[in-house]
Amino acid sequence: MALPPLLALAVALALLMAGAVSAQQLPPAPGKPPAVHRTPAGEIMVLPAPKAAAPLQAKTRPPALPTAEPARSHAPPLVCAPKALTCIEVEGGAQAQRHVPLTIGQPFLAGDVPKGATLLARDGRGGALPLQIDQPATFADGSLRFAVLSTVLPSLAAHNRDRIDFFLGMPAGRAEVMVPPPDITIKAVAMIYAAQLSMITFGDRTGYNPGRPFLAGETVTIALGEAPEDRYTLTISRELEGGAYPTLSRIAEAFMALINQGRNFRAYKVGEGGGYEHLWVTSRERPGRSFAVQFLYGGQASLRATVVQAWQPSRRFVASASGGRLANAWLAGPVVSETTQTVAFVEEVSGTPHPQLTARFAVRSYAGVETVRVDAAVENAWTYEPGAGNLTYNLQLLLNGSEAFGVQDLTHHHHARWHTVRWTGQTPSVHVRHNLSYLLKSRAVWNYDTRLKIPEATLQAEGQALARAGTRPMGTATLTPYMPTTGGRSDIGPLPRWTVLYLLSQDPRAKALMLANADAGGSAPIHYRDRKTDQPVSLDDHPDLRLIPNQQGPDAMPAMDNADTPWTVDVSHQPSLAYVPYLVTGERYYLDELMFWANWSIGMHPSDYRGGSLALLSDEQVRGQAWGMRVLGEAAHILPDQHPMKAYFTRKLANNLDWYVTHYPRNPDQGAISPLGWVEKGDAVGLTGPWQNDFLALVIGWLAQSGEPLAEQYFHWLSRATVGRWTHEAQGYCRAQAPAYYIKIRDPDNRFIANWRDLHRLNWPEITRCPATITDGYPNSPGGYVAVSLAMLAVAADLGVDGAAAAYDRLRRDTAIDFATDPTWAIVPRQTPVLGGPYGMDAADR
User: Fold this and answer.
1) Which one, out of 297, 448, 514, 680, has a CA that is 20 to 30 A from the CA of 282?
2) Comparing C-alpha atoms, which of 452, 358, 361 is closest to residue 405?
3) Which of 348, 292, 284, 285 is nearest to 320 (CA)?
4) What is the pLDDT of residue 823?
5) How confident is the model at residue 53 (pLDDT cuts 50, 70, 90)?
């Protein structure tokens, strides 16, 4: 079957005397996309002749995670071949390997790979390598922004490092033989059951108002079922008496300890505050049996039990797929094919598909490589189908009839997903090290300080954290499931700490933790897929939809009874989980994760607050606007040009940038906004958090550097405040107060303050002379507000804001921040600052 020309992988056999090098013609520059336009054009359908897959090796059940690569010392910067655009380094595992398959993601600087050009690949000895380019995303001028690159290395010695250089070239235009999907059978067998789950509620408080109290000396007995051994009695002590939520929470915790001492039942707490006065109880045996909850208590306080999930016996469901069939193609060309089949779990007895549980099998086969890769994802994510809620099951994954993976007693959260990657034969052992200099130069991420050397102890700690983490399906790894948790956190920043540690070190331990946390993000209940389109549910099609369970109103989702999970998700504390994983691996699973997080970030708000299908983030906290705009920008920029959701996320990003520019720099009513450039705290008129303004400026500045002209306009307006508070000491605003937590920006008559001297006097009337040193904002901490401001000033310096470069340099000299163990905010100017340096890759390149 002929492929559509825009995605046909025209891989040329260039340099014939040296070997085969494949290349791809870039698609023409896309025109302006319509507001709502979904097309299957980007879903390549292939049906070539199948080939036989390699037989499975006899093996026991493998671990949930692939074996980690050996730790490496901190390697020096990559030095690419002369005239190479960029390069990567590959390192082999403990054994020598032949025909080594490799697929990566690679960002590019605007203009480096122009429209109509392509890429060629050579190894470190100058030998030509086959290269296949898939899923390109382009800039407005048609040059390549990002692509998925695949090759096969002839060999790789044990623990050997080799370099792959990428050169600019022109397509040869020869026809290519496509790698066919392999002949493989895949089966996922799920024994789905429902153990009874009951929720016990202690007391009847209303918010902060206490209810009828438990009294000291009273006894409370809870009987679970009929057995005498399952009666649990607690005497209310002085510490436990009362009817407010702290007391009720302690009573719930006391009963949890009592019940968990028994043999037949398990009690636990979940959610915000551990569920406070709520306690969940289920049987230890799975699926167990139904049971009654009875209370023996003569006092006045309230006790009640609710069956959250009724008992159901085990039922066997199977999701099956085979290779060589028509399927969605993610990778298609002469080097590699990857096709995805979406399959419902069907009950064997009745033949009825499960309303929610779905498998997605992505099968990857490389030319000349016997082993076949299967990325098996299991989703509980349909938006409008009945039966939504948590599911419990045991699951086996069978490849060609042999067990490749299994999990027992898994509670699969509603609107969540997980995946596992398995190979039918020997698993390739390759660690890829990207060219950090070029990756930063591409503007795909912020410009982190490459002079930092991450200590070995820090990288060892990352590996130890991963070893302790919950990484089985529905595990949370090292994430913070209760996202509103305040204080310093390793996941809050332009990118999480673990991601920046990986970028700067390119260490396999840091990479493994980053990918584990990206996988753990799949367990959050934010994955809402539309069965009609098989994509994240569109707010254009459903402008009244809110992506929060059990909401009322038009276009509401089906109600759920069993919807409790460990997660409380919010936009204001949301980390960037899937973007860099996709950026460096090119794995479709992580791109889907990125889309789900982006769509939830705009769809979780009430329709009236977000402007319906406009999907505005302006009603969020200022920090929420920052992280929401970040994930929108990540999705809009890196989605392939032909992806059916590309136009959707591009439009949502544009809607928000247009709103910001219209509401702030272009607002004809300048009295309605701060003339100094502050974004007001939405829930507290007259206040703002300078650090939250820095968050927003960092994201808007990154979008500006990524080619969004409206973002640059908004950034320069924001810089009046974010930069101005560091540069107006002569006008009466002390630098020592620049990193303040919250400040007032309106006078007693509710008018915005219009000059820096009055702003300082309003907030610090007692300070009449500026202090010589900065003491606020944790000035020497890598996670303090001064560190946040340094990052913001670095971006402002690159975007030409007056005084920003000098302010950055002075602040850096005035502080003693060591970013080596926590480089979350270690963003530096790309150009040499006015008074010092050099900083950044551009300066180092000179």
Assistant:
1) 297
2) 361
3) 348
4) 98
5) very low
